[in-house]
Specification:
With about 240 residues, the chain is of the alpha+beta class. About 35% of the residues lie in helices and about 20% in strands. The protein has six helices and eight strands; from the N terminus they run βββββααααβββαα. About 35% of the residues are buried.
Length: about 240
């Protein structure tokens, strides 16, 4: 049972037994893993604040061939987002990012790009003191990396160009449709689609905080979250909390 070491991001933790925690974490090299942190619920434990949601850590763990769960031996905190976690609104944004990553990432598949995306998004929420633009950026790029993002400037059904024209969101599939193919009334404006194109072309930390003019950021974010739910066939439980902040 050789010990493995990796940079990781804590996604979620759950109580396990009387004193342990079940930890879901995104390893930089091994992808999403689940492991047991023995004694992590005790008042005095060796993990401290390293198991906070989205904490950036260096984790030591080992695994047995006959078990799905790894055993977490050590967890060293490299970067904390405690300041953001202490603010209800910011913590809610972090929680949605955590749930999306937990939802879209399969277990034990390396996901270096997703690792960098999660870390960048968490850093930007803390730096900006706002979750609106980082969450929309993260949701859109999660779709892109998963191969789920529909073309933003052509009809997903007939291929007609959408530039300068209304784009309609399908209620049953993650597609953008033209006027001829539309199946509902909900639209994604040209401004929101242009913003999406800028998200895909630029790093989040280079996008200005005021990039949500006219509510385009919210419109794009809601569409991206809808597509994540449609593609994963799962409702994001933390999404409802966004309405309370």
């Amino acid at each position: 049972m050789p010990t493995l070491e990796s940079e990781a991001i804590i996604l979620k933790t759950f109580p396990l037994g009387e004193a342990d925690r079940l930890v879901s974490f995104l390893s930089r090299g091994q992808g999403r893993l689940r492991g047991v942190a023995a004694g992590a619920r005790r008042l005095k434990n060796r993990f401290g604040s390293a198991l906070e949601v989205l904490a950036y850590v260096r984790v030591e763990f080992f695994e047995k061939e006959t078990r799905d769960l790894v055993r977490i031996r050590e967890c060293e905190l490299l970067e904390s987002f405690h300041k953001a976690q202490s603010d209800y609104a910011l913590a809610t944004g972090l929680a949605v990012i955590s749930e999306i990553a937990e939802t879209v990432l399969p277990e034990r598949e390396p996901a270096e790009a997703m690792f960098r995306l999660v870390l960048l998004s968490a850093r930007e929420i803390q730096r900006r003191g706002s979750w609106e633009v980082p969450l929309g950026y993260f949701a859109l790029w999660s779709l892109k990396l998963g191969g789920w993002l529909p073309p933003l400037e052509e009809c997903g059904r007939c291929g007609a160009g959408l530039a300068g024209k209304p784009a309609y969101i399908s209620s049953t599939s993650p597609l953008l449709l033209c006027e001829k193919c539309r199946s509902g009334k909900r639209t994604l404006s040209a401004q929101a689609r242009d913003l999406g194109a800028s998200y895909l072309a630029e790093r989040l930390d280079r996008i200005e905080a005021g990039a949500d003019a006219g509510g385009a950021a919210k419109e794009l974010r809601e569409a991206a979250l809808d597509w994540v739910e449609l593609q994963s066939e799962r409702k994001l439980q933390t999404r409802e909390l966004l309405e309370t902040v």
